[in-house]
Amino acid sequence: MPEVPWTVGAAANVVIALSYVLITLAIVRPLLRTGQLRSNPLAAATAAIFLTCAVHHGSHALHMAMPWFGVDVVQGTAMRQAWGWPLASWDVLGALVALYYLSLRRSYSSLTSGAALFADLEQRERQALDLNDHVLQSLVVARMSLERGDRDKALSALDSAIGSAGTIITDLVEGGRGGTAHLLRSGAAVVAAPPVGATAPGASTTPTEVTEERL
Fold first, then answer.
1. Has residue 141 got a pLDDT over 50?
2. Rounded-to-integer distance, Cα 105 and Cα 134, Å
3. Contact present, 182 and 175 (Cβ < 8 Å)
4. Dihedral sign, Cα of residue 131, residue 135, residue 141, residue 143
5. How far, in Å, are 5, 15, 136 from residue 187 at the CA level?
């Protein structure tokens, strides 16, 4: 029985070390793919934390295993003796948490596909521009048209906003299921322009492109 705690702890530390290596790779690979390794220091630092923790836990398991091979016997034996059930229990808990985290990354890939754990700021800007050009502008036109009593034009603008919003959401959802969301604009926004001189609160005064209709 005296060997049970350290063997359990060593096995748990191996699981933790391997899990942390996988988490590090899961963070670094998207950063390399999107060119954010230097421009996203918070994500890079988080990857470094996981990597150093992987080395730390791996060294525990390695030191406890070394006496089997006649290497570092004194320190390895001392570490085995120091590894009681309290430490082994925490190691088991840590291994379970690491495995649970890996399972969550697969379930929530839409939050981690762009820059691993962190939002791609450029991608957020593209999303905001898409929403402004394709959705908000159409809603502005719908409001102005209703105020002028032009029901048909208002309905047309609302249909355009609904369709654009659906397309943007579909791209985001599909991108989160293992692919990269296609958030670059495929074309300029085309919506009906509000009456000259009228600007709704919150609407951009310089849309990318607006098809102007004279009333």
1. yes
2. 31
3. yes
4. negative
5. 63, 48, 16
Quick: pLDDT tens for 70-127.
Answer: 887 888 899 889 898 999 999 999 999 999 988 887 666 544 555 545 555 566 667 7
Residue with tokens 């918070």: 42
Quick check: 183 and 110 in contact, CB under 8 A? no
